[in-house]
């Protein structure tokens, strides 16, 4: 079979990553399981923030059973950075940390008056 | 003055980014204010996780007065991903979210018994 860029080897459609990168989507494509063709925005975000080659390297360095979680957290992080280029995920961390501090103070007060 | 790769134009030493990338550090280098030569690990992390060109683009797209915060949050995020390639920053978010939930429950109980 002749391989064509943007076609999944063996028939099916290419994953979202190979489609965006306009490359042949091999049977063992490292992106395909985590970046399906019907959710192109996910790969678009990680590509914009981390770059395809860094995402590829990061996934390859992890055991297969952990790659799905890593893909999901990369998408989460990338979306946060696209939404808030200044603070990204760190904005959520800092706001949650403030919530924890406030709740601890409230709890100490509530317990003191029991 | 002849410009040499890895030398800061005008004399001084190149910033950590230009040193790692082995390029001339111009007077108006976008990295220099946020990645000083004496903290090479900061740029090494963001370069590994985001890639120098993505960091450059992100900083350039922000007003100058916000770039220092953006640089710091990128370093924080990159260090988290280097430490924990699976969850990165998202690990901290999920653990803080659990803390918030637990504290809210404890507070509700403490308030009910007042």
Automatic annotation (TrEMBL), chains A, B:
It holds the Pfam family LOB. PROSITE patterns: LOB. Residues 13-114 form the LOB domain. Signal peptide: none annotated. InterPro entries: LOB. It comes from the Eukaryota. Belongs to the LOB domain-containing protein family. This is LOW QUALITY PROTEIN: LOB domain-containing protein 4-like. It comes from Dioscorea cayennensis subsp. rotundata. The gene is LOC120273436.
């Amino acid at each position: 079979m002749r391989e064509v860029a943007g076609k999944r080897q063996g028939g099916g459609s290419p994953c979202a990553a190979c489609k965006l990168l306009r490359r042949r989507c091999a049977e063992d494509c490292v992106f395909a399981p985590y970046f399906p063709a019907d959710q192109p925005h996910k790969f678009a975000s990680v590509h914009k923030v981390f770059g395809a080659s860094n995402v590829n390297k990061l996934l390859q360095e992890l055991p297969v059973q952990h790659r799905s979680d890593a893909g999901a957290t990369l998408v989460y992080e990338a979306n946060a950075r696209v939404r808030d280029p200044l603070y990204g995920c760190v904005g959520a961390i800092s706001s949650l940390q403030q919530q924890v501090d406030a709740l601890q103070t409230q709890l100490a007060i509530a317990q003191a008056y029991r």
